[in-house]
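Repro:
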Amino acid sequence: MVSRGASSAGGVRGGPGERRGREVRGGPAETVEKRGETVIRVLLADDQTLVRAAFAMLVESAPDMEVVGQAGTGREAVELARSERADLVVMDIRMPDLDGIEATRLIAADEDLAGVKVLVLTTYDTDEHIVEALRAGASGFLVKDTRPAELLDGIRTVAAGEALLSPGPTSRLIARFLRGPAAGPPVAGPDCLSEREREVLTLVARGLNNTETAEALGLSPLTAKTHVSRIMGKLGARDRAQLVIVAYESGLVTPGST
């Protein structure tokens, strides 16, 4: 059993590359085995100590996850993301020193952290912050009162490269705030896509995963996944969340469209 020390934010964390049972060193997004399963290295960023502690207990209870760091500010989150080589950061928006949006932007802009995903925790009274977080590079968001099992599923979803964006009201909420100027590096528009790729992008923007997209278009899941990968390459998008932003900002998908 590998011992852990106290983090600078008052939590516990392992050193770079530390794992239960054995030590493995590697870059971001590298996974290892824990009890025979794939491990997701999670960094928790929230300015409330009790909230972080509760999330840490929940994450550590999952056989396929471990907490590698805890941060009380956005700046600490960026520093720990670099030093602990986390796969995913669970990021609060409202934090002192540097808020979660700016911290997300710094992580997304760092080439050394290209494999690090950000899952934002927020509340429905900060709708515009959700969109800014997605523009900054977050791969999805959850509300803080979500059920424990949903938070763990959300971590798995984002770590696997999917965007945690539900269809229906959530997509319309996002679209409402995409009328303002975009923040962060520009992403190419959908004009460079083929007709099929535009169809796939439309379904991705409405919250469908690869399997659902494949069923809707009569494709195999592998073909749908290939289309999504090619679309991200053509648009220079970091992940599926950015594809949603492109689809709405370009007018390819509009609020309430079916």
